[in-house]
Structure formats: structure tokens, C-alpha cells
Design a protein that fits this description.
Number of domains: 1
Strand content: 35-45%
Radius of gyration: 14 Å
Structural class: mainly beta
Number of strands: 7
CATH class: Alpha Beta
Number of helices: 2
Helix content: 10-25%
Shape: globular
Length: 139
């Protein structure tokens, strides 16, 4: 079987100078911290994917969803997976942060961009390595 990269969408939710990250479990990258997000589905826009993933994972309302201009090429050698990850940015609007997929996430917490927890999920680590900052003007 021929292998191909998959497309992942990471959603950077900003609120009062912080971003929200979840601690992964029962999936590749278990124990690492990541943005809300997941696989881009067939015939789904990037914005629709971001809204769906936030609704499924955290349950908050967001506004101003847009492409950040950032993309990473992510290799998970141990799991033999390859992803192209697109990053969407949005702003928290309302609602209580909840763990809606307890089989996939231990918790969700807010962190300042310059003080993110470790270990970071490979795509988030790769994004940080580019010098990207979600609080600076994007493309």
C-alpha cells in the first residue's frame, strides 16, 4: 500500500494573551500538549474543520477564524505517520472550556506563548521552531 501524508488542522485559540493546549492521550503523541484540531475531512473548508474540532473537543465559541499563514511538515517516525499541518487562528468568544473527548484529552489549559508546557506535540514544536507567534500580525 502506498503511503501519503495526511492533512491536519491545528486551531490556535487566543484569549487574554494566552493560547489553549490539551494534553493528548490514546493517540500518537500521547502525553504531549497540542492545539485543538484534527484531520481535514473531504469537502471541508479549513474554517469548517476548525469550528468542528473546537465544538467536538472543547465546546467553546470562537470568532475571527482565519488561516495563520503557517504550515508545518511533520514526521512521526515512531508511528510511521506524516502530516502536513495547517494552522488556523481564532479568538475565544464565550463558553466554558470542557474536556468533551476524555478518551483523547486529559485536560485543556491556557498558557502564554512564551511559556508553553512540555513536551509539545511534534507539529506545535515544529511551529514554535519557525519563530511563529500567534500574537503578531499574520500574513
Amino acid at each position: 500500500m502506498e503511503k501519503h501524508p495526511r492533512v491536519g488542522v491545528g486551531v490556535i485559540i487566543r484569549n487574554n494573551g494566552k493560547v489553549i493546549l490539551g494534553k493528548r492521550k490514546n493517540a500518537h503523541g500521547e502525553g504531549s500538549w497540542c492545539f485543538a484540531g484534527g484531520h481535514l475531512e473531504f469537502n471541508e473548508s479549513w474554517e469548517e474543520c476548525a469550528e468542528r474540532e473546537i465544538s467536538e473537543e472543547i465546546g467553546v465559541k470562537v470568532k475571527n477564524i482565519h488561516f495563520s499563514g503557517a504550515v508545518t511538515n511533520d514526521f512521526f517516525k515512531k508511528e510511521d505517520k506524516h502530516y502536513i499541518t495547517l494552522y488556523m487562528i481564532c479568538d475565544y468568544d464565550s463558553g466554558e472550556v470542557r474536556v468533551l473527548e476524555p478518551e483523547k484529552s486529559e485536560c485543556w489549559e491556557w498558557f502564554s506563548w512564551n511559556n508553553l508546557p512540555t513536551p509539545l506535540f511534534i507539529p506545535v514544536h515544529n511551529l514554535k521552531e519557525t519563530g511563529f507567534n500567534p500574537f503578531e500580525k499574520q500574513l
